[in-house]
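Annotated sample (chain length 199).
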Amino acid sequence: MDNKKDQLEMEYEKLSRLNQIYLMVISRYKDHIEASEEISVAQLPTMVMPKSNVILQRANIIKKAYASYNYDSDFRDAANAAFEFIINNVDEINLPLQFWLTPEETLRFMAGDITDRAILLCSLFIALDNPSSKVLIVTNESNRTILVYYDLNGKTVMYDLSKRIIKEFPTRDNMVESLSRDENTTIYEFNDQMYIDII
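Output written by the structure step:
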């Protein structure tokens, strides 16, 4: 029994040392990696992948919770289920460099930073049949907020993965007005079809 425990501890220590080496390599080549990972605003829509087989499979798992999935009656509940899935199962991790994961990769590793998780959520919303879904990013000198929203039945519904909250607004403009901002704030949104600078 002690021998097995010792062996597990040795494996854990070996893995820990390996992770430290990986971190050192990443830190050493951080600038090179980040330069290779730069994405232009025109490329952002390519990161939202609702038609990916992996995303469609996850959306279908959510749809199977309904006897016969109907967008009009079931989407809002299915969207909440997608949100809960990510909150409860996809860990938020912060790498020591800017590195993009595709929604497929975020699902494979069940982890990603807040942007990766938001792009996954948006991809799932569109795969659940709501093409109005978008990732909304609010930035200023000291803060960055990443949200996902969609329009449904004349309302705008916003999801905040960081705060784990859902808010409903009468319109998209009301949602944008509710966001904290100053003269240095920029706000933009995108999905698989478009990119728009709001402010």
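Annotation: Residues 7 and 13 are 10 Å apart (CA to CA).
Annotation: The first strand starts at residue 91 and ends at 92.
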